């Protein structure tokens, strides 16, 4: 029997359908993985399920009776508890205070602290946690804090527990501890929704899997009968079959000089030792699922995250990039994944946004004249076909695709040797999507070196001379030449 | 990479002749200033009369300008700091420090006026560097970081003065506060010079663009290679130097350094002036000329209240009301609401006319 069931769930945002008729069934006593790439609709579905958002259509039922959630508090009161990736308890209160926050047992109208502490110890004992509950929450590791958050959820008579990426900041042992607790709760009949990027973890604890893609339900599967490569295929929206790659003609570029050479580059906490080489005039694709370390490679190469070990060479000379400015002065450029916070300078005009990187490279005492800036802006508006009435429009008023083109123009103005594009087509409408791909192919033909991450396999196939596959924050495979097929990439992503 | 030929075959767009865009930002602060001037003219007809005596200009208007000099200097620096997304509460205290340094050097027998002024400026630069360092390297919120010096600065000035009000006799130094150059009181000349220098530094180099970029989006500025820490430190240092100059004017004016009262609360006037000038406290676009207009609005207002013969106890309240009014006029939301109200009113009168 279904504990929680959503059918035909819809949620629209201006311009996007975040959920498009999604069904989801959670049984009592199961761990159910909810999977999908960025923009698949996972987080929207979780928000609807936990009362943080109201759906625009569709219905929901809980224990067989229709349910319409008004708020997260309402969801909690009927027995749907959520534990988020970032522990959202109060770090400066004690463990016991956190466990009973907002529902403190009273005695004569006053809070009964003795009872809180005693009950807290009992609750945590069920989770094999023998800790001093009168110490502040922040004095324990993130893993323990996660468990405490779960304990709080379960103790509030939860029947459904939603775990939103609880393992993102846990190490292997801590994960195992968490999984133990999850299995125990499952055996007690609680239904658990588990969200994670890590396929290993899915197969370690989950009974069933629901996959979303672009706001739609791809399917519901039994974990035991679904192979990894099938799962990856569902997540990326591809059938596993031998397909020829899209690039008609590949020149032999293995003889050219390496431009960027990375040996065992690691960043503590975000990137395991990874080696990578980009030759002159070569386009290297970075494949992998969300959270696999794709963006982390880009950030480490560009000096955003400081490397903790390994070497990085540009044109055979070892470099230590402490900040992006160092990388830029060596002829690198990065279009970051998060355009809004790290890309555009919103209120400034298109002209200024295009001129900024070149200006920063020239230094403040050598200004680019207004006339020169305008010429630059006009040239790129024409060449990249940026849709705008004039160059003085603030960039924040442009569509996502046009913003991305302005960012590309910003870097092209600096004539970089290596252009790093982190998800260049994210949040870009279909029309601009094709144009940006066309531009990337153009860059390849012009002999620029490229390092491009993408979650769209056909994009990678379209321009890559080589594809490096990332998993679990390290490079697991490198595919070259005619071996670059969707099947090969997906197998590399899925293999354990 | 210069030969992207994605638009080959398309004729290049004809070069458009662009008219300088009339900047709407200038409208409201200037309107406010003109309104105040008009009120002044109505109350005291001789408000705009300027006389020349002994080769120096005299008149109410000159007085207003002269008296607004310290706040104008502070506002110039504050504009930059606010544009980076920060705020500097310590400029009043920095004024006190600079005044105390100069006064004690003079009393201590340093004859060279250049040395005295240089020491005062160095004190201001140091204050700015401390603020900028705390904000950009320690990551302390600007309001907290500068609050430290706002409190400690007066203490430092008191220590320098050994708890006394230090008075001095120096004609050369007094000139900064009371002298005349080219027929204008020297403080006005000083403001003009600093204004011109900072404006040149911001608009004729790329520094102004960097300041705006950092203020709009510090994260993106870092990604595109701007040394945002240095930009912030420069802004705070300029603010410190401006404050030191303001402090020297007020010390020279009274021929003494009063650590407790020099520049007291002036940081608030400076912030207010920048806001009246239309800058966002979130950072981003800035205009030093508009901040100066803001200073003049505040100063004119004070004069107007005195001239109108209202009891002095109304001063602060009237100031607050006028400030709210000016800020309302600039608020896009308020403008929108007023526009909607006006449209509804017009529609009603139209339908009534038809009936």
TrEMBL record, chain A:
Domain ABC transporter: 4-239, 254-496
Keywords: ATP-binding, Nucleotide-binding, Repeat, Transport
Record carries keyword Nucleotide-binding: yes
UniProt-listed Pfam families: ABC_tran
InterPro entries recorded: AAA+_ATPase, ABC_carbohydrate_import_ATPase, ABC_transporter-like_ATP-bd, ABC_transporter-like_CS, P-loop_NTPase
UniProt xrefs under Gene3D superfamilies: P-loop containing nucleotide triphosphate hydrolases
SUPFAM superfamilies: P-loop containing nucleoside triphosphate hydrolases
Molecular functions (GO terms): ATP binding
Matches recorded under PANTHER family: CARBOHYDRATE TRANSPORT ATP-BINDING PROTEIN MG119-RELATED, GALACTOFURANOSE TRANSPORTER ATP-BINDING PROTEIN YTFR
Protein name: Sugar ABC transporter ATP-binding protein
Automatic annotation (TrEMBL), chain B:
InterPro entries the UniProt entry points to: ABC_transp_permease (IPR001851)
Record flagged with keyword Secreted: no
Alphabetical UniProt keywords: Cell membrane, Membrane, Transmembrane, Transmembrane helix
Subcellular location: Cell inner membrane
CDD domains, A to Z: TM_PBP1_transp_AraH_like
Topology of this chain in the membrane: Multi-pass membrane protein
Membrane spanning stretches: 26-43, 64-83, 114-134, 140-160, 172-200, 206-226, 233-252, 264-283, 290-310, 316-334
UniProt record similarity statement: Belongs to the binding-protein-dependent transport system permease family. AraH/RbsC subfamily.
Protein name per UniProt: ABC transporter permease
Source organism phylogeny: Bacteria, Pseudomonadati, Pseudomonadota, Gammaproteobacteria, Cellvibrionales
């Amino acid at each position: 029997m279904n504990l929680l069931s959503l059918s035909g769930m819809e949620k629209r945002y201006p311009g996007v359908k975040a959920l498009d008729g999604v069904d989801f069934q959670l049984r009592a006593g199961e761990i159910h993985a909810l999977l999908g790439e960025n923009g698949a609709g996972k987080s929207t579905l979780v928000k609807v399920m936990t009362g943080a958002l109201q759906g625009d259509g569709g219905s929901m039922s809980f224990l067989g009776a229709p349910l319409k959630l008004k708020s997260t508090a309402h969801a909690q009161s009927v027995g749907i508890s959520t534990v988020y990736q970032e522990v959202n308890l109060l770090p400066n209160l004690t463990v016991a205070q956190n466990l009973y926050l907002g529902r403190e047992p009273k005695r004569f109208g006053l809070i009964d602290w003795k009872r809180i502490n005693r009950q807290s110890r009992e609750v945590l004992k069920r989770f094999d946690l023998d800790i001093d509950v009168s110490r502040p929450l922040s004095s324990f590791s993130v893993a323990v804090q996660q468990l405490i958050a779960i304990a709080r959820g379960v103790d509030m008579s939860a029947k459904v527990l939603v775990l939103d990426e609880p393992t993102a900041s846990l190490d292997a042992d801590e994960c195992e501890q968490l999984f133990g607790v999850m299995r125990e709760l499952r055996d007690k009949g609680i239904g658990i929704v588990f969200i994670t990027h890590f396929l290993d973890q899915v197969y370690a604890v989950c009974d069933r899997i629901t996959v979303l893609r672009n706001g739609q339900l791809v399917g519901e599967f039994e974990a035991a009968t679904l192979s990894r490569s099938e799962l990856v295929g569902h997540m990326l929206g591809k059938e596993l079959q031998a397909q020829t790659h899209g690039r008609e003609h590949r020149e032999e570029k293995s003889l050219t000089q390496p431009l960027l050479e990375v040996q065992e580059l690691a960043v503590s906490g975000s990137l395991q030792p990874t080696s990578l080489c980009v030759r002159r005039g070569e386009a290297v694709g970075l494949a992998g699922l969300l959270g696999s370390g794709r963006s982390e490679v880009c950030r480490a190469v560009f000096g955003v995250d400081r490397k903790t070990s390994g070497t990085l060479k540009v044109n055979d000379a070892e470099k230590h990039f402490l900040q992006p400015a160092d990388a830029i002065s060596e002829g690198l450029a990065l279009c970051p994944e998060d355009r809004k916070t790290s890309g555009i300078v919103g209120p400034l005009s298109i002209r200024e946004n295009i001129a900024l990187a070149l200006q920063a490279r020239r230094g403040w005492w050598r200004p680019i004249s207004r006339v020169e800036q305008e010429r630059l802006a006009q040239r790129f508006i024409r060449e990249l076909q940026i849709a705008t009435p004039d160059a003085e429009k603030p960039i924040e008023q442009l569509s996502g695709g046009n913003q991305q083109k302005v960012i590309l123009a910003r870097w092209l103005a600096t004539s970089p040797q290596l252009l790093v594009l982190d998800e260049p087509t994210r949040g870009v409408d279909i029309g601009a999507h094709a144009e940006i791909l066309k531009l990337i192919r153009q860059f390849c033909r012009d002999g620029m070196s490229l390092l491009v991450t993408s979650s769209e396999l056909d994009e990678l196939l379209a321009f890559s001379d080589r594809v490096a596959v990332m998993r679990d924050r390290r490079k697991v495979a490198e595919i070259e030449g005619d071996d670059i097929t969707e099947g090969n990439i997906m197998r590399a992503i899925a293999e354990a | 990479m210069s030969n992207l030929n994605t638009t080959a075959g398309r004729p290049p767009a004809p070069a458009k002749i662009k008219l300088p865009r009339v900047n709407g930002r200038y409208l409201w602060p200037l309107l406010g200033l003109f309104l105040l001037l008009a009120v002044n003219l109505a109350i005291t007809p001789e408000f705009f009369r300027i006389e020349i005596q002994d080769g120096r200009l005299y008149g109410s208007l000159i007085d207003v300008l002269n008296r607004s000099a310290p706040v104008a200097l502070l506002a110039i620096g504050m504009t930059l700091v606010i544009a980076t997304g920060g705020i500097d509460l310590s400029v009043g205290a920095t004024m006190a420090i600079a005044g105390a340094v100069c006064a004690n050097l003079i009393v201590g027998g340093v004859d060279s006026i250049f040395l005295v002024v240089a020491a005062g400026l160095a004190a201001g630069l140091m204050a700015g560097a401390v603020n900028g360092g705390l904000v950009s390297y320690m990551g302390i919120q600007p309001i907290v970081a500068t609050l430290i010096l706002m409190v400690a600065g007066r203490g430092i000035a008191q220590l320098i003065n050994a708890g006394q009000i230090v008075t001095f006799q120096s004609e050369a130094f007094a000139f900064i506060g009371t002298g005349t150059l080219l027929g204008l009181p020297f403080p006005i000349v000083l403001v003009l010079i600093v204004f011109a220098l900072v404006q040149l530094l911001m608009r004729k180099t790329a520094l102004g663009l960097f300041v705006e970029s950092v203020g709009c989006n510090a994260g993106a500025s870092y990604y595109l290679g701007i040394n945002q820490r240095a930009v912030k430190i420069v802004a705070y240092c300029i603010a410190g130097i401006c404050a030191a100059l303001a402090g020297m004017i007020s010390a020279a004016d009274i021929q003494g350094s009063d650590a407790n009262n020099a520049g007291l609360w002036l940081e608030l006037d400076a912030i207010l002036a920048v806001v009246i000038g239309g800058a966002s406290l979130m950072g981003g676009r800035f205009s030093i000329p508009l901040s100066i207009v803001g200073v003049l609005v505040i100063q004119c207002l004070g004069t107007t209240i005195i001239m109108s013969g209202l009891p002095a106890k109304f001063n602060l309240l009237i100031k607050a009301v006028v400030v709210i009014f000016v800020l309302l006029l600039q608020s896009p939301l308020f403008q929108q609401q007023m526009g909607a109200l006006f449209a509804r009113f017009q529609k009603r009168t139209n339908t009534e006319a038809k009936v």
